[in-house]
Design brief:
- This protein has 109 residues and is α+β, with helices and mostly antiparallel strands.
- Helices cover 29% and strands 17% of the residues.
- The radius of gyration is 18 Å and the shape is globular.
- The relative contact order is 0.18.
Length: 109
C-alpha cells in the first residue's frame, strides 16, 4: 500500500471519473453479495456541482467500502455500550445529539 492511499471518511464536492468507477464497483459488489438491485442515478452523480458538499466516501486501505450521497446531515443510532463504534464515529467528526431509552416486555409463548 502506498503512502498516498485514501483512508477513512472523505467529503466530496463533485465526483471524478475514478470515484464514479469505484462507486459503480462497490454497488455491483453489494448487489451480488446481498442480492440487491441498487439504483443510482449516474447522470446526477456525474453532474454534481463542485461548490456543494454532496457525497461522502469511506476508504479502508485504499479501497472504497462505503458511499453516502446527497445528504446535508448524517444521523446514526449506536448502542451506547458499543465503545468501539462510538470511538470510530467520533473520530469521523460525529457528535452526540441525543439519546433514547428502549423497553422490552418478554412475552410467554
Amino acid at each position: 500500500m502506498s503512502s498516498t492511499s485514501k483512508q477513512g471518511l472523505i467529503e466530496r464536492r463533485g465526483l471524478d471519473t475514478n470515484e464514479l468507477s469505484e462507486i459503480q464497483q462497490l454497488a455491483q459488489l453489494c448487489n451480488q453479495h446481498d442480492g440487491l438491485d441498487l439504483k443510482l442515478n449516474w447522470n446526477i452523480l456525474r453532474d454534481r456541482p463542485s461548490d456543494q458538499l454532496n457525497d461522502f466516501l469511506y476508504y479502508a486501505d485504499g479501497q472504497l467500502v462505503g458511499f453516502l450521497s446527497g445528504q446535508q446531515n448524517i444521523w446514526l443510532e449506536v448502542v451506547t455500550e458499543n465503545k468501539h463504534a462510538l470511538s470510530l464515529y467520533q473520530s469521523c467528526g460525529f457528535k452526540e445529539t441525543g439519546g433514547y431509552d428502549y423497553y422490552r416486555l418478554q412475552l410467554k409463548n
